[in-house]
Amino acid sequence: MNANPLTDADLDRLEQLLEDDVFQEDSMRLDEIQAILCAIVSGPEPVLPSVWLPDVLGKGMENASHPVVAECMELLMRLNNDIAAALLADETVAPVLYPLDENGEEYDYAAWADSYVYGAGLAGDWFELAGKHAEDLSELLEPMFMLNGMLKEDVEKSGERWFAPAEEARLVADIEENLPVIIQTLYNFWRNKRSGGTVRHEEPKSGRNDPCPCGSGRKFKQCCGSPEKLN
């Protein structure tokens, strides 16, 4: 159990500190920081604070002894511990999200997913470290690539047909709703790898570009292997 968990007041204070002039508008937002820490905590190799703090606080790290920076660092370490404790206990982490409009009808899931992918890279090449389970990891990460637009970009660059707008919107909405589960699943993937476990499949695995075994005529990755099935 985390001995000193952050309160809502602590999180509000952290948001306030990140906007202080000492950071010269170079610090990350709280949503981006949370996403990076979720990836770091989940990953295959430890990432020291000396690696991720400069990315998170930017120019503020030039004044690490400044009271605001020091307080911010202390809160960030506690946030890191909170996330680690929650994922270890199989408690889903609720993503911090900022609205994209004044009405709060849409939220910036893309920034969260993009930051998670960035955080994953701080521990090295996840796919290389996944070894024989790299394809399984790729599937688990596809929802993140769906949210940040990378999956669509790659598909369109390859000349393949992308989802119709209504279908894309449905898939994205499903991923957004299930993002806490996706985060936990990625953590569990690496936890299982560290403990020497294996990734289990109840049925023979289909390749991403193989015809879907359901008989739809579509590629597996665009049917039963599509992003909404990967969490």
Automatic annotation (TrEMBL):
Entry's transmembrane regions: none
InterPro entries listed in its UniProt record: SEC_C_motif (IPR004027), YgfB-like (IPR011978), YgfB-like_sf (IPR036255)
Domain of life where this protein originates: Bacteria
Biased composition (Basic and acidic residues): 199-208
Start and end residues of each stretch annotated as Disordered: 196-231
NCBIfam families for the chain: ygfB_yecA
PANTHER family associated with the record: ADENYLATE CYCLASE-ASSOCIATED CAP C-TERMINAL DOMAIN-CONTAINING PROTEIN, UPF0225 PROTEIN SCO1677
Stated name of the protein: YecA family protein
Organism: Dechloromonas denitrificans
Source organism phylogeny: Bacteria, Pseudomonadati, Pseudomonadota, Betaproteobacteria, Rhodocyclales
